[in-house]
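Hello,

I think I submitted the magnesium ion job twice by accident. Can you confirm which output corresponds to this input? Input:
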Amino acid sequence: MKILVIGNGAREHAICHKLKQSKMVKEIYCAPGNGGISQTVNCIDIKADDLEKITEFSVSNKIDLVVIGPELPLVLGLADILKEKGIKVFGPDKKGAKLEGSKSYSKEFMKKYGIPTAKYEVYTNSHDAKENLNKFNVPVVIKADGLAAGKGVLICQSLEEAKNAIDDIMTEKKFGEAGNTVVIEEFLDGIESSLLCFADGKTLIPMESAKDYKKALDDDKGLNTGGMGCFSPNPVYTDELKRFIKDNILKTTLNGFKNENIDFKGVLFIGLMIKDGEAKVLEYNTRFGDPETEVILPRLKSDLAEIMLKCIDGDLKEEDLQWTDEKCVTVVLASGGYPEKYETGKEITGLEQLDEDIIVFNGGTKNSDEKILTDGGRVLAVTALDDTIENAREKVYKNIERIKFEKMEYRKDIGNM
Ligand SMILES: Nc1ncnc2c1ncn2[C@@H]1O[C@H](COP(=O)(O)OP(=O)(O)O)[C@@H](O)[C@H]1O
Ligand SMILES: [Mg+2]
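Support: Only one job matched these inputs. Its output is below.
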């Protein structure tokens, strides 16, 4: 089988790494990939949102399966176009991807199908949005409707702040067209967690759990990032909570898919707020998470290519997913200054000195001559498996000391229990 993976982050590196272990797979391509991914599979110079070139490449190279990593090509309808050409796709159609692409749509979906979520209202003009703010207590959450690369959600501590947020989103268009509509939402407190599920159109089968760290600095201080580290499994997932989620969230979501004719094949990532043994849905993402994927896929014992084909064929069973009991920790090495301004093009050294069982997933890297250079904010995800979280984290941090690039930054508290 020939597979094309779309995307260029550590998530896609983890997907390529896992697919490469499959006996069914003959060749793997990644578009566009990055420096590290090119040492694992063949990278091709096509951007993830260039639907036309991706389609052309897939047809002319007789690709059997396309795995779509990021949200943008999904929301733009890449899966629909490829399927029309008779190519198998792991990732939902435009219709399913709208659950991530439009927050107002996904909230309506949740309300319609009785899926527990925060109370909310949707506005398409800023005057009405501001007039109705007094229906909410503070803190209040203001969300741009469309894709905003994880920056379109503002938690406001006063009504004044909320009014400014509405202006920024709707009038100043800080997030472009994504801010034509806003969702105003009740603030939920609790412990945040995400649950990734494989979806085959008929069922949603949870993967092993993970805990991610979104803030830039230790003790959850500093700015929000794409994720600075992660570990799996996440101890918040008690059997009681798993049952609650199955009965109140997975069943109702599947019912919604059925009623709305959403043939969802791929990964559904459910963002949850957990309190008193119950969970509410913050949002749906319609693809693998980053950095969750970097700790979940290394724990998967089953063949990922086989699972993906079973999802596409509508034939996935719980026993198809076998997991190792080993625990996994990943720590992200970032460019100094991230998530704000940072420099790239710094030489990365020391990778050849790492212990053999360390896996380094590349986020933002590129090759130049014989060197590997930084090429993004989140550069490397340094990953290890071991019998306990403590041992895995110790292994990761010991090996990180051997890796060097100018202005390298990372959190020191990933996996501290
Ligand atoms: N209703 C809410 N109550 C409390 N925190 C929230 C709420 N909605 C979102 N958040 C916080 O904002 C973050 C981003 O919101 P989310 O809906 O996941 O959008 P996105 O990931 O697209 O930016 C969440 O991870 C959570 O920390
Ligand atoms: Mg989110």
